[in-house]
TrEMBL record:
GO molecular function, one term: transcription cis-regulatory region binding
Record feature DNA-binding region, as residue ranges: 36-55
UniProt name for this protein: TetR family transcriptional regulator
SUPFAM superfamilies hit by this protein: Homeodomain-like, Tetracyclin repressor-like, C-terminal domain
Any coiled-coil regions, as ranges: none
Top-level division of the source organism's lineage: Bacteria
HTH tetR-type domain span: 15-73
Keywords per UniProt: DNA-binding
InterPro entries, per the entry: Homeodomain-like_sf, HTH-type_TetR-like_transc_reg, HTH_TetR, Tet_transcr_reg_TetR-rel_C_sf
PROSITE patterns: HTH_TETR_2 (PS50977)
Amino acid sequence: MSKPVARAPQRRNARSNRARILDTARQELGRNPDITMEELARAAGVVRRTLFGHFPGRDALLAALADEASAALREAAEDAVGLDEPAERALARLFLAMWPVGDRYRMLLALARRHLGAERVTGILAPVRDAATDIVERGQREGVFHSHLPPVALSAGLEALMVALLESVNDGVLDDDVVPLVVATLIAAGVPEKRASDVVVDVSSVINAKPGFGDGT
C-alpha cells in the first residue's frame, strides 16, 4: 500500500521538472535559437539525464514546445474574439490576451526558419494572425483604423510592433507594463491617443477581473 504513496512525490517532481525545462527553453530559445541541450539543462537547474529523460533529443523538446505554444496561442485568440464589441476593443483584447503568452510567440518566430520550419510555425500562428486580420478589416470598415494598407498588411505591421515591444521589455529597455504598449499599438492602427488609452484601460480592467489572467497557462 505504501508504494503508490511513494510514487506520488516522484510524479510531482517529474511534472515540476518538465514544466521548468519547458519554461526555461521558451525563454532561452527565444534569445538564442542555437542554444545546446547541455546549456538548457544548466539554465533549468537540472542534470543532463533529467533533461534527456523528459526529451530524448532536441527535436522532441521543440515538438513539445510547439504543441504547448499552439494551445496557448489558440486559447488566447479564442478568448479575445469571442465577444461582439467594437473593433478597437477587440484588437486591444487580443493583444492584451497575447501578452502573457508572448514568450511563446517570440520563441516561435525565433525558431521558424532553421528549426521548426516556417510552414509549421505559420500554421501554429494562423489562429492569432487570422483573428487580428479579421479585427483590422472590421475596424477599417468601421472607420476606426487606418485604411491606407490592406488588412493583412496592417495586421502584420501591428504584429511586428508588438514583437519589437516584447523584445524591448525582455532587454530591459521598457517596463513590463502591457497597457501603454497596447495603447501604442492601437495608435499605430489609427486610433486617437486619448481614445486608445481609454479603450485599453477599460478592456484591461475587465480582463484582469477574470480568474487566471496573466498566469501564462
